[in-house]
Specification:
The protein is an alpha+beta fold. The chain contains 24 helices and 20 strands. The longest helix has 26 residues.
């Protein structure tokens, strides 16, 4: 119920025909630009803090600009950047506007390659200078690089030390700038290698340029630069000479899909946006494999290259639960199954009293899981009806049958998000009072003091909105019991691969486990985990162990959930409250191809993740306990 921020979304288009072709067939040479707009707008869910696009114009003459970029901040950034691009064309005559040859020669953003990016900041760094795509300029066309990505690196410090040791000097200490410089450095070396070859062939002038641009191999650049990367990423880039690439991390953490026909090559973070934008079926779209790169040369030749050896696949399960668009055929089925699989635990919680139970959902992203939950309840009710009919024997009366068959699962739109709490309200009591009214209820949707109310959510991470708003407002309906359901398991560990949850004290599950340890006089468990974590600070990250798991080990999931209820239930709540979570086994059954579950299990796919959770736990204990004197 508290929205998670997520980094980020990418979109790329390479036109495979001259601009004149699109003008003649589609009535505009802006075909690629318009399609990029649709790809970005349909991925708006992936980033609302900023957006940017870049464009490369092939075969520009010396002295003519061939690489363009536009960026903007805020939730309206997509509209702003495309309005800025279109402003270049507002003074054109109709003849000029529809002249593809004129556009190619004289107009900015009239190119063959487009790349777009949507940003959510998960690092705390904001401002236009952190909005993708990034540009690295050079007088050699092939050395120009525009880069964007959906990524978060866990070993930025190590990469920074390595590239500065070679004499490079990044302008900022952020993973994007550092990776831009790292890739740019390798691109320089590749161009210089080809330059040396051309000189050995006694070439001069534009012959050298053409030799380089026809033979440049970005797989060399990507292979040498990315071998040290630890994190989840889909990296996309274009060079000034017209090379284009997309590279996925070897664990397959972050998603990427591509499509090609005779007219275009397209890359995007999500499959259904390609389907909708280009009116193609899911079977026509290919998922980029872990460690694989999609490469397109200046002359439009496509190839796939295995840049890094694929490792144990750990595709992000939060993509399936929450972030990606539910219109994807597989994600829709998975979310429904997540809702269906939690039904047995809900039935136990309501003591199987389906007659006096109302089902609903908050927020809208949980709607598909809600349909799955309804399906599960319908199946249970049908089984119940069959049993009741069987008990009646061979000659049931009409009234007996009617009574059984009239039983229905009840669902209502119980709560709606009514206002957005404005951040200018700083005073604590005022914020708390207003937060309680973010949601509104549908009055008289329950039978007071008789009905159970079951509300499903896709995830419960911090629990803040539950405590400040949801439980109190639902209690006004006077339900006998409120059951809060999460279609995902308990979120126990930080994410370091692009989701906005990086510190231990954000998680209500962690807070509950700590409080349980205190209640039971088991603070020594915290101290022992802290000591073990401290003792491995100076060992290689590949040898580190996630000792935070020991905080949860003494307790069952149900014990932790019960403690969460105690922490989150506001004083004066009349209804009994219970929280029901999906199991890890249920998650894996519903999402069999997305085994990345580290936020639930603590099993990080990369050594960098283990290193960072180790440090996050140490930081938490240092700020909340006084164990340092016992640590050797």
């Amino acid at each position: 119920m508290e929205p998670l921020k997520h980094e980020c979304g990418v979109a790329m288009i390479r036109l495979l025909k001259p601009l004149e072709y699109y003008q003649e067939k589609y009535g505009t040479w802006m075909y690629g630009l318009n399609k990029l707009y649709l790809l970005m707008e349909k991925q708006h869910n992936r980033g609302q803090e900023g957006a940017g696009l870049s464009c490369v114009k092939l075969e520009a003459n010396p002295g003519e600009e061939y690489m363009f970029r536009e960026r903007a901040l805020g939730s309206g950034a997509i509209t702003e950047i495309f309005e800025a691009v279109q402003s270049n064309f507002k003074d054109l005559t109709q003849e000029q506007l529809h002249d593809a040859e004129y556009a190619k020669r004289f107009l900015p953003f009239a190119g063959e390659i487009y790349m777009g990016h949507l940003r959510y900041s998960t690092t705390g760094k904001s401002g236009i200078s952190y909005v993708h795509p990034f540009l690295r300029r050079n007088n050699w066309r092939a050395k120009n690089l525009s880069l964007c990505g959906n990524f978060n690196m866990t070993n930025v410090d190590e990469i920074f030390e390595k590239i500065t040791a070679t004499g490079q000097h990044p302008r900022k200490y952020s993973d994007t700038y550092i990776i831009l410089e790292q890739l740019g450095h390798r691109l320089d070396r590749e161009v210089e290698r080809l330059f040396a070859e051309s000189k050995q062939e006694s070439m001069e002038g534009m012959d050298i340029t053409n030799y380089i641009e026809e033979r440049i191999d970005l797989s060399n650049v990507l292979r040498t630069a990315s071998k040290d990367w630890d994190g989840g990423y889909v990296m996309c880039g274009i060079t000034g000479s017209g090379e284009m690439f997309s590279l996925r991390d070897p664990w397959g953490i972050r998603p990427a899909f591509w499509y090609k026909d005779d007219e275009v090559l397209v890359v995007a973070s999500e499959r259904p946006v390609i389907q909708t934008t280009f009116n193609v079926s899911a079977d026509d779209i290919v998922e980029l494999n872990p460690g694989e790169s999609l490469l397109l040369s200046k002359n439009g030749e496509i190839r796939l290259a295995q840049i890094n050896k694929p490792l144990i696949r750990k595709s992000c399960s939060f993509e399936r639960i929450y972030f990606s668009r539910g219109s994807d055929k597989d994600i829709y089925k998975e979310r429904k199954l997540l809702g269906e699989m939690v039904v047995p635990a809900i039935l136990k919680s309501i003591n199987y009293d389906v007659e006096n139970t109302v089902l609903s959902f908050i927020p809208n992203t949980a709607e598909v899981a809600f349909y799955g939950m309804l399906q599960g309840f319908d199946d249970y009710l049908n089984e119940m009806k069959v049993r009741k009919i069987e008990v009646l024997g061979h000659n049931p009366s009409h009234d007996e049958l009617e009574k059984i068959l009239s039983m229905r699962i009840r669902s209502e739109k119980v709560a709606i998000k009514d206002i957005k709490l404005r951040t200018f309200i700083a005073e604590g009591n005022s914020r708390n009072d207003l937060a309680a009214h973010v949601y509104d209820i549908t009055y008289d949707s329950l039978k007071p003091y008789k009905d159970n109310l079951v509300i499903i959510d896709d995830s419960i991470v911090r629990g803040t909105t539950l405590k400040q708003s949801i439980i109190s407002i639902l209690d006004r309906l006077n339900p006998k019991k409120i059951v809060i359901v999460s279609s995902s398991p308990q979120v126990r560990y930080p994410d370091y691969y692009g989701i906005d949850m990086a510190s231990m004290d954000q998680f209500i599950a962690f807070k509950a486990a700590i409080e349980l340890l205190k209640d039971k006089g088991m603070v020594s468990v915290i101290e022992n985990a802290y000591r073990k974590s401290k003792n491995q600070i100076n060992i290689p990250k590949e040898q580190m162990v996630n000792y935070v798991k020991e905080i949860y080990a003494p307790f069952t999931d149900e014990q932790i959930s019960s403690k969460m209820v105690e922490i989150l239930t506001p004083k004066g709540t009349k209804a009994k409250v219970e929280i029901v979570y999906q199991t890890l086994e249920g998650l894996h059954k519903a999402c069999p191809n997305s085994k990345g579950d580290w936020y639930f299990s603590g099993d990080y796919p990369t050594p960098g993740g283990v290193k960072l959770v180790n440090q996050a736990f140490i930081d938490y204990v240092d700020n909340n306990f006084n164990f340092e004197k016992t640590v050797k």
